[in-house]
Design goal:
- The chain is α/β, with parallel strands linked by helices and 623 residues long.
- Helix content is 35%, strand content 20%.
- The chain contains 22 helices and 24 strands.
- Strand 19, helix 16 and strand 20 form a beta-alpha-beta unit.
- The chain is globular.
- Residues 1-65 have low confidence and may be disordered.
- It binds zinc ion (ZN).
- Zinc ion binds at residues 136, 138, 312, 520.
């Protein structure tokens, strides 16, 4: 034991991954390991010298007679291993032992880790990277989006009407029809002559005609608006006399009747009606529905190389559900769930019981609170320092009052939680930074200790950009939003403000900010390759390049999707790089996204996704 103890405190040599590992992890060691380590950190000495034996026999012999380390369970070799650890750089092979990474090095180095049961994947030149960490998404909504009508591909309003008509045909009278993902900017603009168009969206008369007995509720791609037919509005108690709720708009036709379009908090009334509708389900049916959503979400995540997922909003009830899944071993993807939708009073009482910090091969962590200060730019809900150019009577919406978020900040400090505030507009970003700064000053603490985040951080006044780095506030951005929004941002902000404030990645990075990445799924597809490509090209959906002076480098974009997101969850000691001793969460990509030409990036396939050393996804046609 003395030897082991000594080795665990072996002075760190930054060029030697083996020693680095020794400093970080405890594992089975034989005395010969100690000798190997002391003699220069090489594993070449372990190679068998019996030239007549087959490589398998040699490996087996090595395991039985000259075994220097506990064998690996899986070795991936013959490719490129981008560790995203600046001390380690790139290698050609990686050895996994159980749930953790045993070593990185050359393919020859790995022979020391071959035992009788060690499996091998021949990378054939492919790239291994740390598993993608989705930095901001909505886990159960991703699953639910697979259970309801998918309107994301609708190219015309009529596509949506037809999908609803098919669903109504199959539904019982009174059954609700749910859909998600429509976006008016994707439609070709042709509507029926009879349609009254309000704010670019037809009023609901046409849809009412096909769905009189079925409430229809279709959520916008952004989640910041929704469309309801007359039956759904009726169930929600919305009529001509209803006033707009705080932070929301009931969009109206020329005659003053609700058009069906509901912005931001105006959706709440329908959602309350849906909650009542859901009471028809037994507790077992609710659990089964949620379980299906979780399973569908996990499938989507793993298929896209996502091994950890920051869930931007879970109530205590949902966290209880996640806990049950974790206990059953039924969470295939690691979740970092942000507490959401609970009052300050409730959080002050219950947060201590819910704090869960990731340790080892854990699948659930809870240590942050999600707040939302404003809405989205597309729906004129982002809170701006100056009014919208195309809606000059408004600077946007405040969804959750500053004083309320300020109180959350105090509660978070008292309970060791991060605050992760959704802020999209310039005013929203400034107010959020102000709230954080005031709270930290009052508590005599600093951002680097707390790692509080701004979710989205899309439009930032140049005066506020350096505050992220200076204060230590993480910009939890989504590369894909930049290229989806790019074509129409200037219509909301004007050219000058767009150039000055929108998605200023380079100035953020250069002023020391840490940028996370993600997709905000189901707002955008969970696909990290798409968001990575957006981050390094800023080529929009219409083919132009959106202010290319702010592109990230390939390395920065990869870090933003791995180690930076791990840091943003206080999990960088466990994951985010392929450092020996960390969790064996990794992805094999069909090609090298650090070097292929920009236009080839979207062809990248996820060949394998491993979580905790287990292959959780393998592409059927992968070599
Ligand atoms: Zn979100």
């Amino acid at each position: 034991m003395q030897f082991v103890k000594y080795l665990l405190h072996f002075p760190q040599n930054p060029t030697c991954s083996f020693r680095k590992f020794c400093n970080k992890s405890r594992w089975w060691l034989s005395i010969s390991v100690l000798v190997t380590a002391l003699s220069g950190c090489g594993s070449e000495d372990a190679a068998d010298s019996n030239p007549g034996a087959s490589s398998d026999q040699r490996a087996a012999a090595s395991a039985s007679t000259e075994q220097t380390v506990e064998p690996a369970t899986l070795i991936l070799s013959g490719g490129k291993v981008a560790t995203v650890d600046p001390e380690l750089g790139n290698h050609t092979a990686i050895a996994l032992r159980g749930a953790t990474i045993a070593a990185v090095g050359s393919s020859e180095d790995m022979s020391a880790y071959v035992g009788p049961d060690t499996e091998n994947i021949d990378l054939q030149g492919r790239l291994v990277i740390p598993g993608f960490i989705e930095g901001h998404g909505h886990y159960l909504s991703l699953g639910r989006a697979r259970q309801i009508l998918n309107l994301a591909d609708a190219k015309t309003w009529n596509d949506i009407v037809s999908k609803v008509a098919v669903a109504v045909d199959k539904a019982q009278p009174g059954e609700w029809i749910f859909g998600r993902g429509w976006h008016q900017d994707k439609w070709d603009g042709e509507f029926a002559d009879s349609d009254e168009i309000v704010d670019g969206v037809p009023a609901n008369d046409g849809i009412n005609a096909i769905s009189r007995d079925n409430p229809v509720y279709l959520v916008h791609a952004s989640g910041h608006a929704a469309y309801a037919n007359a039956a759904a509005l009726g169930a929600a108690g919305i009529d001509k006399t209803s006033e707009d709720p705080a932070g929301g708009t009931i969009v109206r036709k020329a005659n003053g009747e609700a058009s069906g379009l509901l912005r931001e908090n105006a959706q709440d009334a329908v959602e309350r009606a849906v909650a009542i509708y859901d009471q028809r389900l037994s507790p077992e049916e609710v659990e089964a529905t949620l379980k299906e959503q979780s399973d569908l979400a996990a499938q989507e995540a793993l298929r896209h190389g996502v091994t950890s997922f920051h869930d931007a909003g879970a109530s205590f009830d949902v966290i209880d559900f996640y806990k049950r899944l974790e206990d059953q071993g039924a969470l295939p993807v690691r979740l970092y769930a942000m507490v959401r939708g609970e009052s300050n009073e409730e959080m002050a009482k219950r947060l201590p019981d819910y704090r869960m910090v990731a340790e080892g091969n854990d699948f659930l962590a809870v240590r942050s609170i999600k707040r939302q200060i404003d809405g989205a730019l597309g729906a004129h809900g982002a809170w701006l320092l100056e009014p919208y150019v195309d809606m000059p009577n408004t600077p946007g919406l405040v969804l959750e009052p500053v004083a309320d978020i300020e109180r959350t900040a105090e509660i978070a400090l008292a309970n060791g939680y991060q605050v992760n505030t959704h802020a999209i507009g310039t005013r929203a970003n400034r107010e959020t930074l102000d709230i954080y700064e005031r709270a930290w000053q009052a508590a005599d603490t600093t951002g680097d200790k707390l790692r509080w985040r701004v979710e989205h951080a899309q439009h930032i006044h140049p005066d506020d950009v350096p505050r992220f780095g200076k204060l230590g506030v993480i910009a939890a951005m989504q590369g894909i939003h930049c290229v989806s929004d790019g074509p129409w941002i200037a219509s909301r902000l004007g050219e000058e403000r767009t150039k000055l404030t929108s998605y200023p990645w380079r100035t953020l990075i250069e002023s020391g900010a840490i940028i996370g990445n993600g997709s905000d799924v189901p707002v955008e597809p969970i696909d990290p390759i798409a968001s990575y490509t957006a981050s390094v090209t800023r080529i929009t959906n219409t083919g132009e390049t959106f202010h290319p002076e702010h592109v990230m480098t390939r390395e920065e974009a990869l870090a933003s999707y791995t180690i930076n997101n791990a840091y943003a969850a206080f999990e960088d000691d466990l994951k985010g790089s392929l450092t020996p001793g960390k969790l064996a969460d990794l992805v094999v990509l069909s090609q090298d996204i650090l070097t292929v030409a920009d236009e080839k990036l979207p062809d990248t396939q996820i060949d394998y996704t491993l979580v905790g050393g287990e292959i959780k996804y393998a592409r059927a046609t992968a070599p």
